[in-house]
Design brief:
By secondary structure, the chain is an alpha/beta fold. The chain contains three helices and six strands; from the N terminus they run H-E-H-E-E-E-E-H-E.
C-alpha cells in the first residue's frame, strides 16, 4: 500500500516517453496479475497524463502513440522469457515467486535487457516488491 507499483508504473511510462524507438518491459509473476495490475494501472495513468495509447491484451502490450510499445510478460514460466530485446525493465511483485524460480526469471530477464540505446545510454532494470523478514 505504499505506492511501489504506482512508482514502477510511472517510471516505466517515463522511460517509454524518453525512448520512443526502444522497447520497455514490465514483468509480473503471473498472467492474472498482468491483467489485474498492469492492464488497469497503465491505462489509468496514461489517460490521466493525456497520452494516447492502445491496450492490446492479446499480445500483452500497450502501444503508446508516437512512442512505441511497453510489453508485459509473466515470470511463472521463466524458460519462456526468450526471443526479444528491451532497453528498460521493471520486475514487479518479485516477492511472490518462489526464490529459485525468481532467480531463473531474473537471469532470463537480465539477458533480454540488451537493446542498444542510440546514444549509448546504459540499460536499466528496477525491481519492486514487498519487503519481508525471515
Amino acid at each position: 500500500g505504499s505506492g511501489k507499483s504506482y512508482a514502477a508504473t510511472l517510471k516505466t511510462i517515463v522511460k517509454k516517453l524518453q525512448n520512443p524507438t526502444l522497447t520497455v518491459a514490465y514483468y509480473l509473476p503471473t498472467y492474472p496479475l498482468i491483467r489485474d495490475i498492469a492492464f488497469s494501472k497503465f491505462p489509468e495513468m496514461l489517460s490521466e497524463m493525456g497520452i494516447e495509447f492502445v491496450l492490446n491484451k492479446t499480445d500483452k502490450e500497450i502501444l503508446v502513440k508516437d512512442h512505441g510499445k511497453i510489453i508485459f510478460r509473466s515470470m511463472d514460466n521463466p524458460h519462456t522469457i526468450v526471443g526479444y530485446e528491451v532497453f528498460y525493465t521493471v520486475i514487479d511483485e518479485c516477492d511472490i515467486l518462489e526464490a529459485t524460480k525468481m532467480e531463473i526469471a531474473y537471469n532470463k530477464i537480465l539477458a533480454r535487457n540488451r537493446q542498444k540505446h542510440p546514444k549509448g545510454e546504459a540499460n536499466a532494470l528496477d525491481i519492486v516488491g514487498t519487503p519481508w523478514r525471515l
